Amino acid sequence: MTVCHRRIHQAFKLPSISRLLPSIPAVRSASTAAGAVAGDPFTDHPSHHHLAAVDSKSTLLKSYTVTPPIKPWPQRLSPKRLVAMISRQQNLDLALQIFDHAGKYHPNFAHNYETYLAIIEKLSRGRAFEPMETLISQLQKSRIRCGENLFITVLRNYGLASRPKLAIRTFLRIPSFGLQASVRSFNTVLNTLVQNKRFDLVHLMFKNCRKKFGIIPNVFTCNILVKALCKNNDIDAASRVLEEMPAMGFIPNVVTYTTILGGYVSKGDMEGARRVFGEILDRGWLPDPTTYTILMDGYCKQRRFMDAVKVMDEMEENKVEPNDVTYGVIIAAYCKEKKSGEVLNLLDDMLEKKYIPSSALCCRMIDMLCEEGKVEGACELWKKLLKKNCTPDNAITSTLIHWLCKEGKIWEARKLFDEFEKGSIPSTLTYNSLIAGMCEGGMLPEAARLWDDMVEKGCVPNAFTYNMLIKGFCKVGTAREGIRVMEEMLDNGCLPNKSTYSILLDGLYKQGLEGEAINLLSMASSRGRVDSDSWGVFVTKVVDASNINVEGAAIDRILIESAA
User: pTM for this structure?
Assistant: First the structure.
């Protein structure tokens, strides 16, 4: 029963049976005293006469007030207004309730194609495919005339959700709605198959597009086929399709050639890639930034940085502006080579052209500078990026916190965390970075307070969080406290891993608490929480040449108990 159905059920709920029971003996005794036939207490109840007088569903609905899912609910409701209400609603369940309530309980309102499109788009983007499919079936039964855009949205979202078979099924359903599938929906389903590496199905559907589906392919269809073949490392077949396109009535474009160029780059064949690039120029076409970027990426992967820079120079000579992806490719390559001077110069050029580096690129630059021992430089770089409207996120913040803690600057890391928390919600990763730094620095009380803050704000600790706290206790010589943390870990349903046991066992042995090791194993195995990797840790650390008979026998006993 959905939330919507529960609301409706409650709205129509009659007086409970327990409230009716006291009237039953009274009715019977009165009837018996009069010498008459005993009446039915349920038919004698006032609610029965009310329901008996109802002659239709619409009359019944008018006699009750159904609570709308949101307040205020508009007195006048048009399909356009309902679409706006659904579109701005973040809660999928509530959006579905709004749609349901409008159709069933709002006077003189009827859904149309636009209202169905709005709710189906909302549900498919939120990957709520089960209620979405129910609504699609409902739309089919309603005989409302619908458009192809609805199906294209569903196809794309099935592709993003890695459900290519459901995308094909949706495509095949289109004619049952009184629609002829066009090349747009056909190309969308092909792209879905490419996204999900079903290259065999792309070729099969392409071969049958005219005969089976009555669809005439276009140049975009051929480009998708070329992309599928290139991603499947079949450059020869992709080149044959390129050659056959004019005979099929299609003229290859820059995208076709760029796709094949990318195929050669993926194979590491830069000579082939450069040859295709030359063919683009020979045809009088101007390569776009994507073409240049793919070629540069190929050279960077082979560490041929001078060739990559030459390609960038060619871009400028041909008046093609590098975009954010172009800068990202070459900056990331220089980061990998620890060439901080080149990175910072290119970043200045990038910022001058109003491009903002991605979160991943920011993390790479910060890592590169910190690995060179330039933590202060990394912090200055981040301040500079903030001034250029670069948005702080959990990945960047946790990276900076990690390096600040590694430098022993834990209070600076805490200050950064507090600043970030003012405008964002820290993730488990961000909390973990600071908790790990505090534990490594022996600041266990501060780490415990941060842990409490994390849990209070609904951020769930993971195995890494527990391991860092356990490591902190072991480091200050209180390994038994570490065991209590692991008990809490088990109680909260978090599975200890190889690192958990390794940290605890090391801590116990350093404190001369060898006897606790077997107790630890016994506790964990009794809860069925020791995986094969963790058993390996116990065998390596607990069973050694000096105590193999004693400890080996204890482990045998635990194994038997666990199996039982």
Answer: 0.72
